[in-house]
């Protein structure tokens, strides 16, 4: 299985909500910018990226984009992660890794920025401070907003997946 590339259509998203309900979304039909953030609680780079993603979510409050976290942990563990990191964006459990396989993940964290067309626009793997800041600037441009910094000075420049 080859890795997904920029320009590829985004696959379906399957999972379980934190309330235990089945979740299904087709990124082809959303018509807004969608950022998918795959992570796992046991991954140090995932734990580092979650606060930056929450800051990104808070920085651009508009209906023209959405952030969806896809955790490779059970819903109960994701509830604890949401509490610990004060996550306000939705989290979906990828219990059987169906969505992770569809997106051909090789590492977590991995971010997929999906354009309103339903095509993958950007892929980020691991925690890279400058790539996250560039993502924030690109999102701000797309939304017509002033760019906001989402990383902290104490964050390392790089934490591989």
Q: What is the tally of beta strands?
A: 9
Oligomer: single chain
Q: Beta-sheet strand percentage? A: 15-25%
Terminus-to-terminus distance: 20 Å
- Taking pLDDT < 50 over at least 5 consecutive residues as the criterion, the unreliable ranges are none
Order of neighbouring strands in the sheet with most strands:
5-4-3-6-7
User: Helical element count?
Assistant: 4
Order of helices and strands: EEEHEHEHEEEHE
For the largest beta-sheet, the strand count, sense and barrel status come to: 5 strands, mixed
Helix content: 25-40%
How would you sum up the global shape? globular
Q: What class do helices, strands and sheet pairing give?
A: alpha/beta
Mean pLDDT: 94
What radius of gyration results from the CA coordinates? 14 Å
What's the arrangement of secondary structure elements?
Elements: E1 13-16, E2 22-25, E3 33-39, H1 44-59, E4 65-71, H2 75-84, E5 91-93, H3 98-102, E6 110-114, E7 120-125, E8 127-128, H4 129-143, E9 158-159
Parallel strand pairs: 3-4, 4-5
Antiparallel strand pairs: 1-2, 3-6, 6-7, 8-9
Please provide a written account of the structure.
With 161 residues, this protein is of the alpha/beta class. It has four helices and nine strands; from the N terminus they run βββαβαβαβββαβ. The strands form three sheets. The protein has a five-stranded mixed β-sheet. Helix 2 links the parallel strand 4 and strand 5. It is globular and about 35 Å long. 35% of the residues are buried. The mean pLDDT is 94.
